[in-house]
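Incident review: delayed structure delivery

Summary: a single-chain prediction request sat in the queue longer than the usual turnaround. Root cause was a stuck worker, restarted by the on-call engineer. No data loss occurred. The affected request and its eventual output are reproduced below so the record is complete for anyone auditing the incident later.

Affected input:
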Amino acid sequence: MKSPKIDRLKILDTAISLLESEGIEGLTMRKLADALQIKAASLYWHFDNKQTLIEGIADRIVSDVAINFELKHHWQKDCKQLAYDLRNAFLRHRDGARVFAGTYVISENVLRINNTFISAIMQSGASAELASKMTMTLLYFILGCCIEQQSVMLIEKEEITHKREAFKQLVQDKFPQTWQARDILFADDFAHRFDFGLEQLILGFQHQIN
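Output delivered after worker restart:
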């Protein structure tokens, strides 16, 4: 019996479904082949190894970001909207940010997002070089926030309780300033953290541009 014909897009969508259930560590070429009901060797017609598969998944995850994005001649608002859109794309999939962070993808999707960020920032009068540096800074911030949020989401409540107790025992007497900030450190309002950090970055960029 011949293996069913399979295309790259079908492989990627199935891989993303596996990512949701297994996480990045549990996603293997063999499990993917089983899910597609093909031989593992057939996958290598499309992807050389797991790393190239991960790069394909990363590209697929962000494929809807900055599609026909219209700049509104207000660079701060445009940057914030792009940042939220990219954040949402990462958070939409389990380990989405970790998948993207582990790649160096050269694709139309990734380059479109990069170019749109740079174009938005250049509305302020910033040079392409400065706008590119700011774009990289935004990307690192977005990835870091999403990786943190997605990691915490996988921790069981009981483990969180143990971590709080360990934190209390270590910090209460030795690190008084950190103890004063304990409510913030253990708050799970990740959207607020993201908003605050993004606002500080934009303000810093404005100062640099001026």
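Verification: The two ends are 67 Å apart (CA to CA).
Action items: add queue-age alerting; document worker restart procedure.
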